[in-house]
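Field: sequence (string)
Field: structure_tokens (string)

Example rows 1 and 2, in order.
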Amino acid sequence: MSQMKATLLFLTGLVLLLVLETSAEKVIYVNLIVHQNNSITEDDVIITDGRATQYHKTPGDYKIEVRNTGGTVLWSQDVEIAFIDESGYCSSSYFSYKIPYQDTMKTLVMLHNKKEIYTKDVTGCNHNLKCDNAETYFSCSNDCPLNQKDGVCMSKSDGVCDPDCYAGVDPDCAKKPDAGLVQYLPYAALPMILVIAYAAHRRREEKKIEKQRREFEQWKAEREAASPPRRTP
């Protein structure tokens, strides 16, 4: 009975994983630091795969919008940003949100009391062969190939080492030696090569000396054998 229960739990978990995988969509992943003086520090704004943030619309002084090229608002959300932490008052607050992405989206805007305090070009793909704006491999693979930084780590084995992944995350990175180290390998091997060459030279010299010694001993023995014995007085 317990084995059947474990099997059912495993199948249920597998179904949930499949549902989550198939429900993934393109999103604008927004990470900003909002300061009370209306300045914004951009941490990361990229287009990637994910699930949009579920957020109930509540009245607030802040709003985020995404507009098309003509300035029409395609998506908007009132957000509440608090400048209070565990210690009390703070001058800045971290804001993170995943916005459902549309191909016609052009500009991300944050407003405070209806005043624009931040804008960002979120064009999905401008085909300029540069990985800029909010482009990533997911939104523009031609401008952002896997071997370039785009803020998204592809940890699957695909034959390309992703520079956005931490050490040990992308299995493809472990297959290739560090190019920075490879260029110094000949220099690291040079002392060993010199030692081996010197040892081989010494060995040849020792053999040469040993051959000369044997030839001398043989010559000496032949000379003594050819000489008449000395008479004793």
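Row 2 begins here:
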Amino acid sequence: MPLPNANLKESQRIQHQIYLKIPAQSRFLPILRDLSEIFCRNKGMQKAFAHNVMLCVDEAASNIIKHSYKKGPGMITTTFALFNNVLKIVLFHHGIPFDVSTYKEPDIKEYIKAKRKGGLGLYIIKNLMDNIYYYSKNGVNQIILMKHIT
């Protein structure tokens, strides 16, 4: 689902864009991870930057698979767009929407003390991305990740 240029100022027109639609199954995550890193590296982004972006995309997609499609199959469409010095990634899905009001920031010290595993995906994304947005309307859910390129 390509991103529209209509709402962007002339100086912010999308320069590069690619999208991928995959089944919402863990076995397809390597394809999404690879595309994420390849897109970033082909646009001249540093390896560590590309890796962090890939990690965030993987975490967001994993959460969609685990929580939004727990009752049945579905698809995830991911769009990567670059304009000026901003990378914008949007993950679209039609699964169960995420209730943002239920999210509580984890206490990392307590988390480590309790030796918990998993459950840090959104925390990681929030700490690696500059902006994260979530929208759900008319059965379409969007997770928007934005990162200024350094």
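free_text_note (row 2): Residues 16-148 form a domain with the Heat Shock Protein 90 fold (CATH 3.30.565.10).
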